[in-house]
């Protein structure tokens, strides 16, 4: 073929292009202002190997064929051959430059395609992250709704046949901002007085089929809770109000209020909770039981193991106890008052016996620190006299209600019984050597990811316990809030938080966590949390009312001064430099 002939005679084409006339024509072609030549990139141009060489070779070969044909018919006058050769070489150069000019554009298109594919991959990953976060927030909101619905259903089952108070009583209660429990002959209240007795300390609700009660126990005593001013017991009460006068919004001083408890019927039953393995506690318990029965005609309940000790020490001490869990669940309907002999741990144990309403707690200090035990055991007669007569100040200590949600049952109704804690719930790494990795949500909002030794979710009563040791603040027990305190976080900016009491916290172990987490509730009942499991925490509707020796604030300040020696320092001497 013509192409093969041209490729087989390279010397003839080379010789013809090497003449001086041909070189001048090429120089003129290079110097002319061609836009295609100016648009060439002076830098290195990537050229595909196989396809590009073949295409270039075909273009050059066609021009070489024309060159050879012109040369073969060359006449004596050599100018015709020269002109034909010049034109052929010029066209070959143009074809080569045109091909080279097209190659970078194709390469650039290829790079743009690769870049667009990478951007699409990144956008897809970001979209998946956003969808995962939205799904987690929606799931947290759904669990909150389920728990609120469950709590409302439980309260509705406990509150029955709510009666109607008279207008006179209602006006009197509203003016005093009192929280009144139903009298012994009432079945309920209208629920318009704020915190009523069925919300704090629930009396037994009579029904068509009453449950068999424990023996030798009469009707529960009724009482009234009211707001006092700075601990005063003179019956003068303040009102909460908001005033919109001349554009200024003012409120009453809520911090000056102290809750008072006044008995409306005489207490008849007292439950004793004692610290185990203490001879001094056992002796004092027997003495106090004897004094209450002989001088106050009070029925006494004790734990089963305490009942055996009292019968061993004194056969005349007749006390009551419970035989099974069903009887223990009914204690709040029979017990008017709880007396604890021990430290703060004894108060925690007493609160754990009540999954619902808790009777008032009178805590005698026979432990170590005693943040919640203000009464001296040496003066138990005077202290119990004042409490049984009333009125006396109390502190409503909030409890946390905790639910463990297993990953396998997250789409089902929670079957595990909720756990109530008075101090704190702790999520730590247990025996694992890896950092604890936890995702935290507040209602439907993402809070943070915890990477460290763990996390403490504490009540304000527990602010002087484990949370304090981990760097949390000390908070007055009547401040409504939830403490969010990390344990040794691997971060320089992770500071503790105090959240409002109405929020619901969700602590979840993510699927990419290296290890399991462990949750403990008031230092006991440890539960393992596997990847995918979650812990839901919210404020329980059943607080623990503890009696105050003076008032809530005085007792709190005394506890941190005497128990922790807070801000204890030698006083600066008078002599020295002066202004």
From TrEMBL:
Sequence segments annotated as region (Disordered): 26-52
Q: Which reaction does it catalyse?
A: NAD(+) + ATP = ADP + NADP(+) + H(+)
The protein's UniProt keywords, in alphabetical order, are:
ATP-binding, Kinase, NAD, NADP, Nucleotide-binding, Transferase
What highest taxon heads this organism's lineage?
Eukaryota
Q: Which gene encodes it?
A: LOC123080776
Specify the protein name. NAD(+) kinase
Give the species.
Triticum aestivum (Wheat)
Under Gene Ontology molecular function, one entry of this record is: NAD+ kinase activity
Which family is it part of? Belongs to the NAD kinase family.
* Enzyme class, UniProt record, top EC level: transferase
Tell me the organism's taxonomic lineage: Eukaryota, Viridiplantae, Streptophyta, Embryophyta, Tracheophyta
Q: What is its EC number?
A: 2.7.1.23
Q: Which Pfam families match?
A: NAD_kinase, NAD_kinase_C
Biological process GO annotation list? NAD+ metabolic process; NADP+ biosynthetic process
């Amino acid at each position: 073929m013509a192409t093969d002939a041209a490729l087989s005679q390279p010397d003839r084409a080379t010789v013809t292009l090497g003449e001086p006339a041909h070189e001048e024509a090429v120089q003129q072609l290079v110097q002319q202002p061609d836009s295609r030549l100016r648009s060439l990139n002076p830098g290195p141009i990537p050229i595909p190997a196989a396809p590009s060489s073949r295409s270039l070779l075909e273009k050059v070969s066609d021009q070489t064929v024309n060159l050879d044909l012109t040369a073969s018919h060359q006449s004596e006058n050599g100018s015709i051959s020269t002109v034909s050769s010049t034109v052929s070489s010029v066209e070959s150069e143009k074809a080569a430059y045109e091909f080279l000019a097209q190659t970078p554009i194709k390469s650039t298109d290829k790079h743009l395609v690769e870049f667009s594919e990478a951007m699409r991959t990144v956008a897809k990953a970001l979209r998946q992250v956003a969808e995962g976060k939205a799904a987690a927030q929606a799931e947290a909101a759904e669990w909150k709704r389920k728990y609120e619905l469950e709590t409302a259903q439980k309260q509705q089952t406990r509150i029955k046949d709510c009666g109607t108070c008279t207008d006179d009583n209602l006006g009197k209660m509203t003016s005093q901002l009192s929280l009144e429990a139903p009298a012994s002959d009432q079945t309920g209240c209208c629920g318009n007085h704020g915190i009523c007795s069925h919300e704090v300390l629930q009396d037994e609700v009579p029904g068509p089929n009453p449950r068999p009660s424990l023996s030798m126990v009469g009707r529960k005593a009724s009482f009234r809770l009211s707001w006092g001013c700075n601990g005063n017991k003179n019956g003068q009460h303040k009102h909460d109000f908001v005033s919109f006068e001349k554009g200024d919004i003012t409120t009453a001083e809520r911090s000056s209020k102290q809750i008072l408890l006044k008995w409306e019927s005489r207490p008849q039953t007292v439950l004793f909770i004692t610290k185990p393995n203490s001879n001094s506690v056992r002796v004092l318990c027997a003495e106090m039981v004897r004094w209450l029965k002989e001088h106050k005609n009070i029925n006494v309940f004790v734990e089963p193991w305490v009942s055996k000790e009292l019968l061993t020490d004194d056969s005349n001490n007749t006390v009551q106890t419970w035989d099974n869990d069903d009887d223990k669940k009914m204690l709040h309907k029979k017990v008017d008052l709880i007396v604890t002999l021990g430290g703060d741990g004894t108060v925690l144990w007493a609160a754990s016996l009540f999954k619902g309403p808790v009777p008032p707690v009178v805590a005698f200090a026979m432990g170590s620190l005693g943040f919640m035990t203000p009464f001296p055991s040496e003066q138990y007669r005077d202290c119990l006299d004042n409490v049984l007569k009333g009125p006396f100040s109390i502190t409503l200590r909030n409890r946390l209600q905790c639910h463990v949600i297993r990953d396998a049952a997250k789409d089902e109704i929670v079957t595990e019984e909720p756990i109530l804690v008075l101090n704190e719930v702790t999520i730590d790494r247990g025996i694992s050597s890896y950092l604890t990795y936890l995702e935290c949500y507040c209602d439907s909002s993402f809070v943070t990811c915890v990477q460290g030794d763990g996390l403490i979710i504490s009540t304000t009563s527990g602010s002087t316990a484990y949370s304090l040791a981990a760097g949390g603040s000390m908070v007055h027990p009547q401040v409504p809030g939830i403490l969010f305190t990390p344990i040794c976080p691997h971060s320089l900016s992770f500071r503790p938080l105090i959240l409002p009491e109405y929020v619901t916290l969700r602590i979840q172990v993510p699927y990419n966590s290296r290890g399991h987490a462990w949750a403990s509730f008031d230092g006991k009942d440890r539960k393992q949390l596997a990847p995918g499991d979650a812990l839901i925490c919210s404020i329980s509707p059943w607080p623990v009312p503890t009696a105050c020796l003076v008032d809530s604030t005085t007792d709190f300040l005394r506890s941190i001064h005497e128990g922790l020696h807070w801000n204890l320092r030698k006083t600066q001497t008078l002599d020295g430099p002066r202004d």
